[in-house]
Amino acid sequence: MNKNMNGFPANFLWGGATAANQVEGAYNIGGKGLTTADMVPYVPKSERGLNFAIDVDSNYIEKVLKGEIQDTYPKRYGVDFYHRYKEDIALLAELGLKAFRLSINWARIFPNGDDAEPNAEGLQFYDNVFDELKKYDIEPIVTLSHYETPLSLTLKYNGWYSREVIGFFTKYAETVFNRYSDKVKYWITFNEINMIGHSPYTGGGVLIDKVPNKTKAQISYQAAHHQFVASALATKIAHEINPEMKIGCMLARTQTYPVTNNPDDVQLALHQNDLNLFYTDVHATGEYPVYMNRYFAENNIVIEKEVGDDEILKQYPVDYISLSYYMSKSVAVDPEKHEVVAGNLVSNAVKNQYLDTSDWGWQIDPKGLRITLRDMHNRYKKPLFIVENGLGAYDKVEEDGSIHDTYRIDYLQKHIQQMKEAIKDGVDLIGYTSWGPIDLISMSTSEMSKRYGFIYVDQDDEGNGTLNRSRKDSFYWYQGVIATNGSEL
Ligand code: BGP
């Protein structure tokens, strides 16, 4: 019998997740170099779309470097976690977190990415953070690269499009694995590795305008190949340093449905699910899946590999698979025959009449999470870890300071319920770190007002506010969920 028929296992990692570039701030303090995230611009409200993804080009970067564009408030200042980590971790401990996902900002350790020696102050900062977590028995889950490529690697090498970056990354990985070997057990190599296909700049510091005569797809799959090899080599290095370390990959999982039972729609949904799961297929099985051969041929994509790459991928697959899950999508071969959904970036995406959407047009689908987990469990037979999930929403602060975020509780409660079902189905799920336990800067919109937290941060979209922290209603709710190991939702 499945040992978890009753729900969450006793050692389940309940937590919250962040990324350095969205919380730390202190972009030029402690010897840190600039990263790609530090260049992401502020976009005035009147010019914002629902999910304006920022595709930065070389021209834009030049302007920022020359000082012609100065307002880069959001990502450079975050919510000042760099200076407030003790206060924040104390609040997370009060919340009862068993695990806290954070990323190391690569440019705090190697300011230019290709430096000969690491930056001692950067290493010390993360030592302090890990020690603080240890004080409260909170397990750190550490991402090596969460949309924070050192800018100088972009300027000198065009980021992950260049094979040379593999060596700089493995040196960085080796440095932090050695340094934190007795403090950090769970690592993630690349956050949402499939993001590189949507935004090569965000996912890999790649400026596509620097590679004329190639399509975005040709460029991004080549860059992804370099990340696969780097991730496999990092896995090798970690296990040599400490065999107890667990190395995971990370996918932005979008469960995709056919909007009708027309076999053409079904085939399209299958194809889009494959394109999404391609990244975890490589990480988990150590080889390129055959279904990509045809896709690559039809899109004139030829991955340049070096001798030995295939062996490296095969020899060092990941120990576990982590994913973010926010929404599902529905597709149709004839999208014009259906209602379109506002926030959807995927081609052929249409509205699913059974689902509501968030204020940013993301289709809310708790059952899709169970479906995804079952599917990924069957496909990989490796432990799964949900390292992001949550509702971006506008919060209202009442006169007495309270925040009644029932919509957030409702979203999380329904998703956790479906996780429980998936565990009863037999899925090996080791943890759940909801996104942004403390309000942070949004990735896709650079807004502060798109909030995910249990902990409110007093700051607005223009960067005004006291930065004071306060507890929302969801704080007390999640505290109860963790305290009862998910039996009271
Ligand atoms: C994921 C990213 C996070 C995060 C989250 C929410 O794609 O890994 O960095 O921000 O999405 O997205 P957003 O901030 O755009 O609402």
Automatic annotation (TrEMBL):
Gene Ontology cellular component annotations, sorted alphabetically: cytosol
GO molecular function per UniProt: beta-glucosidase activity
InterPro entries: GH, GH_1_N_CS, Glyco_hydro_1, Glyco_hydro_1_AS
Any Gene Ontology biological process: carbohydrate catabolic process
Gene3D superfamilies from the UniProt entry: Glycosidases
UniProt keyword terms in alphabetical order: Glycosidase, Hydrolase
Sequence similarity: Belongs to the glycosyl hydrolase 1 family.
Protein name per UniProt: 6-phospho-beta-glucosidase
Source organism per UniProt: Alkalihalobacillus trypoxylicola
